[in-house]
Amino acid sequence: MVTTADGIFAGVRGKRTRRGTISWKGIPYAAPPMAGNRFRDPQPVHPWPGMRDCSRFGKAAIQEKRFTAVAPGRYQPMGEDCLTLNVFAPDRVSPTPRPVMVFIHGGAYILGTAATPLYDGSLLARAQDVIVVTVQYRFGPFGYLDLSAYSTEERRFDSNLGLKDQVAALSWVQRNIAAFGGDPANVTVFGESAGGSSVMSLLCTPAAEGLFARAISESPAPDLTIPIDAARVYADEFLRLLADPQRRSTRIDTDAEPIPPEQVQALLSRSAAADILRAGRRLMKFAQAADTGHAIPFGPIIDGDYVPLPPLETAAAGKTLPVPLVIGSNRDEGQLFSKLWNVLPETEKALIQVDDEQTRAEIAALYNGGHRDRIQLAADAVFWAPMLAFAEGHGAVAPTYVYRYDFSTRVLEVAGMGATHATEMFAVFGAYRTAIGAGLALGDWRSTGRVIRSVQDRWGAFATAGVPGSGWPTYDPDARRVLIIDDPDRVEHDPDGARRAAWKKVHSAV
After folding, report:
1. Contact yes or no for 112/67 (Cβ under 8 A)
2. Which of the residues 171, 193, 219, 329 is marked catalytic?
3. Given 52, 235, 276, 465, which residue has the most CB atoms within 10 angstroms?
4. CA-wise closest residue to 237 among 222, 227, 247, 223
């Protein structure tokens, strides 16, 4: 049992593969964002009397049910009352406060849950003697619509709610993690995919200053943000879709009469969560049909206030929060999307976004045009190239370490996945040694063990002291040294340098 200002939490000791750990699950870090708190900034949690059972994960945020699978035929319950976090710790006394690692899950800002078995922090906590915290936050229409234009004195609507949820969770850590044996002055925030993009956004958010000492961004999509003008278009169209389930729109209607705030408030107050989710799905179809430039119309909103500038502009201007950063992507990033969920842009669309015709031709010439290279080009446009641009900018204000994850098991190779998106998570969380990942390690038991130890040791060393182990130099625009994570690791100078130089011409214009 752990006592905090909010109340008493009763945790559970781990069994079998998680022996030697304790977990506290489903801890509220903010009040339920329901009724009058729907579409509002996270509000303070209300303390409760007595002991709170923390043996089960909290509810997943509202999304399509299939994305909440936690086992064959089992799904995590969903609800708007989803602002909870989970704490994993070694089951032994430490003479000093432990480093803290706060994880933000991915899911393209439309799906995901901290209850996913892949994100169990027990093995990482035990191996590195750290406290691991995993966070549930709002996303999709519940977390990333800007309805603030429809606020009145009686009913206010806020924006950037998902990002503010993450800041609220980090603030909770600052207030409470010492009771769990953690050091609030030594917090590392880390995340993957949309979680990695969230880490980037936090580095560009003044309200997050002082809440973490280090950051790890795995496979971020730096451009997965929404300009304020587009956010207003999406809010308007969302409300029209919510009001009219039969509406079919394929273009931005600039002549439509604005919707009165009173009508919006009545509409949102009476709408069920399922209706809001359904309208959000239809908004995604609208964004694609109207060719708005955003395959997913949800994400941190560049409002000039809470998030002053887009991540790449913030980094280029040297205005990111000056904390050490580990950042990287995976060698075969795009294969997962090509086979399971194709949200990457077509090659032509990826190149259309390159304004200069000569640069566009130069980039195209560096990919041979085959199916795999077309996928690589799209993935490079979304993940790798802008990630390097961010790393170069942030490297001017704080030590920055860049990696490329190349390790792949035989099972992943046979499946045509390779070192694709999210596969590094099996090493970070040690999941090759749990039920969810053991099948991927068939025939590669020893090598997966070595990669788990290597990645966890580096992530743990970075969280502990700010340097990710030995032999990994910082990234700078002269040497451009990158750690290739494989079995074994190696350092390369400017890998894929020709492609990197061509894409740099695109991002240097930011």
Report:
1. yes
2. 193
3. 235
4. 247
Tell me 60's DSSP state. Answer: B
Rounded Cα distance between 194 and 346, Å, is 20
Other beta carbons within 10 Å of 101: 30
pTM listed for this prediction: 0.96
Question: What distance lies between CA 77 and its chain's CA centroid?
Answer: 21
CA-closest candidate to residue 122, choices 101, 105, 93: 101
Q: What is the three-class DSSP state of 17? A: helix
Using an 8 Å Cβ cutoff, are 326 and 462 in contact? yes
pLDDT the model gives residue 450: 98
CB 233 within 8 A of CB 241: no
Tens-place pLDDT, residues 318-329: 999 999 999 999
Buried b (16+ CB within 10 A) or exposed e, 140-157: bbbbbbbbbebeeeebeb
- In angstroms, the CA 477 to CA 500 distance is 11
Residue 488 preceded by cis peptide, ω within 30: yes
Is 482 within 8 Å of 495 (Cβ atoms)? yes
Catalytic residue among 105, 394, 421, 507: 421
**Residue 371 bears catalytic tag:** no
Output the CA–CA distances (angstroms, integers) from residue 155 to 35, 236, 265, 395, in the order listed.
11, 18, 7, 43
421 is catalytic: yes
Q: Which long-range contacts (CB under 8 A, 24 or more apart) does 243-251 make?
A: 243/267, 245/278, 247/282, 249/286, 249/289, 249/290, 250/286, 250/289, 250/290, 251/289, 251/290
Q: 304 φ, ψ to 5°?
A: 75, 0
pLDDT in tens, 69-91: 999 999 999 999 999 999 999 99
Distance, in Å, from the CA atom of 485 to the CA atom of 422, rounded to the nearest integer, reads: 14
pLDDT at 308 over 90: yes
The DSSP code for 384 is I
Single out the catalytic residue among 218, 333, 392, 424. 333
The closest of 375, 145, 170 to 268, measured between CA atoms, is 145
Angle at 93 between CA 88 and CA 94, to 5 degrees: 90
d(CA 464, CA 461): 5
Q: Find, among 187, 227, 217, the residue nearest to 393 by Cα.
A: 217
Q: Which residue ranges form the domains of the chain, and what is each CATH number?
A: 1-323 (3.40.50.1820), 324-507 (3.40.50.1820)
CB atoms within 10 A of CB 71: 10
Collapsed DSSP state (helix, strand, coil) of residue 157 = coil
